[in-house]
Design a protein that fits this description.
26 strands, 3 domains, 2 helices, 349 residues, mainly beta, six-stranded antiparallel sheet
């Protein structure tokens, strides 16, 4: 059985749906004060994904579909004890526009960390395996992440000028398993080789190491990193191989999923996609959004899943989610553990 120390996952991650009002809009019901908020208008085609965090502060937006530098936005204007406030930005608060927010709990505005060769500012929640790291590029060096365990996935973005969204995922290795590879969140491309190790060089219980690649360590530039470590019964960062069948691959997570982000890592021209249990509360889970573009929410069965009490199962054959022989990386968070330390078991949808 998959026991967990996190009996209530919504204390650390929660999806909150709301409807925009075109003005000031206080969103409550998250269940905690979020430190990382990912927002997306669900209709229309002009609404970028906007990301905010407690280290960079309110009104400082990043947009996943593009390489743009950090922007000052009237999107998220305040963090609250049970949610957040959004301003007049039509992207995340358009009048009568249904909007989704994905919320994670770290530990506020952060503090200095000197575990790496170069100092960083870290906001960390070791219970949930999540940290936000801000740092200044210094070429080939290491930065502290605060997790106390090896991170399984790290998303990095340069803040002060345009560059790609870098994603390290622990399953992206060469066949020899000695060379780390990476994939871009703002792109439909497959994974890329790390070349001569000039990009991402190491991960440990206390640090991650970078080379001289401008994406993640250009000297003097500022960067933000979102670091995730797997916690049994709460989060999972893995991969699966598609079977090209509507009776698709089953992926065991040890919990009923609340959130699923995935990408075909071996084929280009395929989207990153996000499903969650709030936008699709019943199986099939069909409602999905693409972090690599600004498209409206899709609700067809082309990339559908069943969310089960102990994992998820592909229910379509599209290249985005279940092509035969293709490898998919994923990040998943729990709605409920399969079995908690309190003996309560997850129920099927």
């Amino acid at each position: 059985m998959a026991y967990t120390t996190i009996n209530k996952p919504s204390d650390y991650f929660n999806t909150k749906l709301y409807t925009g009002n075109g003005s000031t809009n206080a969103i409550t019901g998250v269940g905690f004060q979020p430190d990382f908020v990912w927002l997306k208008g669900r209709t229309g085609t002009a609404y970028y994904h906007q990301l905010f965090d407690a280290i960079r502060g309110t009104t400082k937006a990043l947009y996943t579909p593009v390489t743009n530098a950090e922007d000052t936005s009237s999107g998220l204007t305040a963090f609250g004890s049970d949610g957040f406030t959004v301003g007049s930005s039509p992207t995340v608060n358009g009048n009568n526009i249904p909007t989704v927010s994905w919320n994670w709990k770290a530990n506020g505005a952060g503090s200095a960390n000197t575990d790496g060769a170069t100092a960083s500012t870290v906001s960390v929640n070791t219970t949930a395996g999540f940290s936000i790291v801000k740092y200044t590029g210094a070429g080939a060096t290491t930065y502290g992440h605060g997790l106390g365990v090896v991170p399984n996935m790290i998303i990095i973005k340069k803040l002060n000028s345009a560059d790609d969204w870098f994603v390290y995922h622990h399953t992206l290795l060469t066949p020899s398993a000695t060379q780390k590879q990476f994939i871009l969140l703002n792109s439909t491309s497959a994974f890329a080789s790390n070349g001569s190790a000039t990009t991402f060089t190491s991960v440990s219980n206390s640090t991650f190491g970078v080379g001289t690649d401008d994406k993640i360590s250009e000297s003097g530039d500022s960067f933000i990193a979102y670091c995730f470590a797997e916690k049994q019964g709460y989060s999972k960062f893995g991969s699966y191989v598609g079977n090209g069948n509507a009776d698709g691959t089953f992926v065991y997570t040890g919990f009923k999923p609340a959130f699923l982000l995935y990408k075909n890592s071996t084929a280009g021209a395929t989207n990153w996609q996000i499903h969650d249990s709030k936008r699709s509360p019943y199986n099939l889970s069909v409602n999905r959004l693409n972090p690599n573009d600004s498209s409206a929410e899709l609700g067809t069965t082309a990339d559908s899943f069943d969310f089960l009490s102990n994992g998820f199962k592909a229910r379509a054959t599209a290249s985005n989610s279940n092509t035969s022989g293709a490898t998919y990386i994923y990040m998943a968070f729990a709605e409920a553990p399969l079995v908690g330390t309190n003996g309560v078991t997850a129920k099927a949808r």
